[in-house]
Amino acid sequence: MALGVVQVLLAGAAWTDLALRPSEFVKGRKVWWAWAILVNFAGPLAYFRWGRKA
């Protein structure tokens, strides 16, 4: 149960960041990252690690 809550919170944080971040600061297309975030823990973690430009 706790892992499910963590997963939902992590995905919510990633989607919020993706929605508020301008496209020029995202590596790749935003729509693809939005779909990737759906993939368990791997999607949000991948977005935070490789999807954002500094």
From TrEMBL:
Record flagged with keyword NAD: no
Residue intervals passing through the bilayer: 32-50
Cellular compartments annotated: Cell membrane
Pfam families with a match to the protein in the record: PLDc_N
Keyword Transmembrane helix tagged: yes
Occurrences of domain Cardiolipin synthase N-terminal (ranges): 13-52
Mode of membrane association: Multi-pass membrane protein
Keywords: Cell membrane, Membrane, Transmembrane, Transmembrane helix
InterPro entries named in the record: CLS_N
Main location: membrane
UniProt protein name: Cardiolipin synthase N-terminal domain-containing protein
Annotated organism of origin: Lentzea flava
